[in-house]
Amino acid sequence: MMNPFRTIKTIGKGVIALVMSVSVSALSGQELLTIDRSMKIAVENSPDMQQTELSLVQSQERLNAQRARLKSQFSVTLNPFEYEKTNRFDQQTSEWYLNESASSGGSFAINQRILPTDGEITLVNRFSYDYSYTESAHAVDPVSKTFNNRLYLQVTQPIFTYNRTRMELEKVELDYEASLLRYLLMKLFLERDVTREFYTVYSNQMQLVIAQEELENNLESYGIINNKVEGGLLALEELYQAEVNLATSKSNVFNSELNLQNSMDQFKVLIGIPLQNGILIAAEIKADTVGVNQELAIEHALNNRMELRQREIDIENASFNLVQAKSINEFAGSVSASFGVQANNEFFNSLFETPTNTPSIGLTLSVPIFDWGERKSEIKAAEAGFQSSQLDYQIERTGIEVNIRSVVRNLKNLENQIVIQRKTIENAQLAYDINLERYRNGDLTSLDLGLYQSQLSDTKMALTNAIIEYKIELLNLKIQTLYDFEEQTPIIPEELMSKSSEKE
């Protein structure tokens, strides 16, 4: 559809006035704001956006930490020096003797968690030097000096239970995804609020332009009727009526200026700039409409709406809770096995001449006997939470479809309103021009001309508001479907889209 303002004289004057005011803004220090610039400022200054972004950063770092824990962990434990001197009793000889001991050593370990099985592999090497001295008369060698080294590989595997390592990772991943969804939703809602307030300021700005033009028209008509009254061509009451119309126009200009300043203050608060700062709104309002396919809009929304993904995350978390509830007082166990070598010698150079193999294996079982119904009750509670999450998902899905149907219908209605208002403006402009000529010829009273003037002003403002409502509703559809019908492109992040594809 063509731009209606190309054919509307009044709106054209308003755009010219706006351009002139913009050139003055460089001298007055006012900031020119477009819708994109306003959105950028709002994102930077909004406390809610900052809080949500910090929450997103927190979730991201937790996910990074959890993934780091799945990698090989290297650690060194050092015992540089340990000394002990005690008086001991030998039961065989029934005598007390003094024992003095000292040691120094350390251990190096590599630990690796096994994500697929929830097992753990550990490689450990322990090295120490031990010194002992005893004053017992029956001691064969009162002084003992020994180098010790033990190297072993140990594997531990839980059995008969769920994979806790994988669940921990998935929980943190879901928490990050939920934080990202909250951030994106907050940004979309902020875009909606900024757009609405931006166009409110623009609407009031155009209302002021129209009121100023109406004042100019009434000044012109007042001059005409004043000359006619002075020439004795019209009665004095016509001049009184013209004065009333002129006063009303002046009042409308004052009220429009007041409404504009109030809306500017609200807009400044929303985007987070000081109230003392001067601003100018620059917008190009076109009546171009966009074709919207309702089936495509519903399908895209149901596949990509972040609220639905949030409900899916709630379902997954509820399923985790159910798994954890079933693990209460469960029959479980673990298998551990290790193999290594151990060496001891008084001389370090000969430490590894006669190493000894040290294999080991063990099985541990946990067998619950009676828990007074704790496990059964926890499972029922978790099942109820899981079913509640599924119900919330279905309710959210139905609500989304209903809302999109309503938005699409409203868009079609606004398209019709724009067409009607464009035609109405053309007719109102023609009617005003014709009756203005009749007024100049003395065939119409100033009261009647004022009615035509008000009708023209109202229709111009009605078209502006209809276009603004259409743009806001189109933005609402963008939020509802996560699809930009103007650009014919999806706006859902690729990261989340890939997750949805993997899930399918």
What key phrases describe this protein's structure?
Outer membrane efflux proteins (OEP), disordered N terminus, alpha+beta, two-stranded parallel ribbon, 21% strand, seven-stranded antiparallel beta sheet, 504 residues, 2 domains
Give a short overview.
The protein is 60% helix and 21% strand. It is α+β, with helices and mostly antiparallel strands and 504 residues long.
Q: Please identify the structural class as seen in this structure.
A: alpha+beta
- What kind of oligomer do you see? single chain
What percentage of amino acids are in beta strands?
A: 15-25%
Q: Which of globular, elongated, flat, extended, rod-shaped describes the shape?
A: elongated
Q: Main sheet?
A: 7 strands, antiparallel
CATH topology of the largest domain: Outer membrane efflux proteins (OEP)
Span between termini? 40 Å
Would you state the CATH class of the largest domain?
Answer: Mainly Alpha
Mean pLDDT level:
81
Any idea how many domains? 2
Q: Quickly give the CATH architecture of the largest domain.
A: Up-down Bundle
What does this structure look like?
- This protein is an alpha+beta fold.
- The chain has two domains: 4-62 and 168-316 and 386-503, Up-down Bundle (Outer membrane efflux proteins (OEP)), CATH 1.20.1600; 73-114 and 119-161 and 333-367, no CATH class.
- It has helices spanning 9-28, 35-45, 47-69, 164-230, 236-271, 294-304, 306-326, 374-440, 446-481, 494-503; strands at 31-33, 73-90, 95-114, 119-134, 143-159, 279-281, 332-345, 356-357, 360-366, 483-484, 489-490.
- The two termini are 40 Å apart.
- Mean pLDDT is 81; it is low at 1-28.
